[in-house]
Amino acid sequence: MKLSPHSLTTGGRVDPLGIGADAPELAWRLPAGQRQCGYEIEVAEGSAFAQSSLHWRSGSVVGERPFGVVYAGAPLQPRTRYSWRVRVLDEDAPSPWSAPAHFETGLLGKDRLTGEWISAPYAGPEDRRVLYFRTEVTLPDGVARARAYASALGWYKLFVNQTDVVGHALVPRWTPFDESVEYQVYDVTQALHSGVNVLGIAVGDGRFRGALGDGGSGDARYGDRLGVAVEFDLELLDGSRMTITTDDRWTVGTGGVRRADPMLAVEVDLRVDQCRWLEAGAFLEDACAAVVLPEHGRRLIAEDVERVRDIARLSGTIRRSPSGMQIIDFGQNSAGIAALTLRGRRGQRVALTYGEALTPDGELDKDYLFVRSPRRPGPTFQRDTVTLSGEPTRYCPWFTIRGFRYVEVEGADDLS
Questions:
Q1: How far apart are CA 353 and CA 122, in angstroms?
Q2: Integer angstrom CA distances of residue 237 from 48, 121, 195
Q3: CA angle, 168 as apex, 121 and 304 as ends, to 5°?
Q4: Cβ density class 49-59: b for 16+ within 10 Å, e for less
């Protein structure tokens, strides 16, 4: 039986976009119980393995390890798509070539992000608003290929014509933000079209300004001013290219998510339509021109690990505590967020408090993790405050992650 290499990875990830390594590590898997004596690898620019497009042919290499193989071909070019494949050797003959894997380089060498770092006009250290940015761009033709290179001081969500390209991922990951900040690359080809397109970015505290990562003090250890930097690199169907970047022509304002500390308080107003700001001709609340941030010297680095994202769904059961609170029990402790449908009159305020334990009498234990102090205010720990729209609304918070088994719901109509 011929060996059949499969599950190819580049830098530990499957078909990654925006790798920052000049010499990425290549790996693959073999069927259970089978071993190789050697391997041969080909890496090509684009998708075809023609002689003219090959960047590296390893030749036959003796080795039993299907991992830890470092690319050793011609220098990789920035913002370029590559394909690679492998066949392995046993005592008899080479296996067939594997199905190809792909990777795309990011900002290699002297290549730089051309988007400027933008924020809202400075309103002082007590201004902890979630910031919303938007712009509109008219494309004369359809899009053949489009990439978004995005980063933020804070956790961000990137939207293209109401398509949320980030999803539940919490990006960028923690880095020493006084030194470096990570960027992500997204394929946004299908989200763009000819005519007017709306580009939107929302950014919350994250690990840059939030309480996570500093013992819960929430003192904005890396800075009190959120910011974003994005570049859209487009190839149109007519063969022309277009670059769209963040600058002071973007608009900044506020939206339905008012505050979003990842550990402490999240405040959301469901009376504000979460989609309307992404429609052509729409406006943000408290809108003004974005401002370019002063030079801050942080290095942009490519992400080289999987993003923090949702990996599973848990269903909860609902009951009333002795005090009358609705408590959702998800059956196990986990790190994540809760999504639920909230009902009540317009303007009604609902508090969702996450916790890992109940008191002996069946109430949510809100004091077991810490001693309340000015630096760690108990009433806001792991709490979402939601103002209802008057219509049943599926609510799922942005820019936060909670450690919990239980969610106490106060102020909402019956959840069942």
A1: 31
A2: 21, 38, 13
A3: 85
A4: beeeeebbebe
Local confidence band at 379 (pLDDT 50, 70, 90 cut-offs): low
Per-residue pLDDT band at 338 (split at 50, 70, 90): very high
Contact between 301 and 19 (Cβ < 8 Å): no
CA distance 166 to 168: 6
**Is the Cα dihedral 83, 12, 233, 273 positive or negative?**
positive
What pLDDT, on the 0 to 100 scale, is given for residue 225?
94
329 touches 404 (CB < 8 A): no
> 118-169: per-residue pLDDT in tens?
999 999 888 999 999 999 999 998 999 999 999 999 999 999 999 999 999 9
Torsion angles phi and psi, residue 368, rounded to 5: -75, -20
Could you read off the pLDDT of 279-298 as tens digits, one per residue? 999 999 999 999 999 988 89
- Could you give the CA distance from residue 279 to residue 136 in angstroms, rounded to a whole number? 9
What whole-number distance in Å separates Cα of residue 206 and Cα of residue 213? 10
Cα separation, 256 vs 282, in Å, equals 14
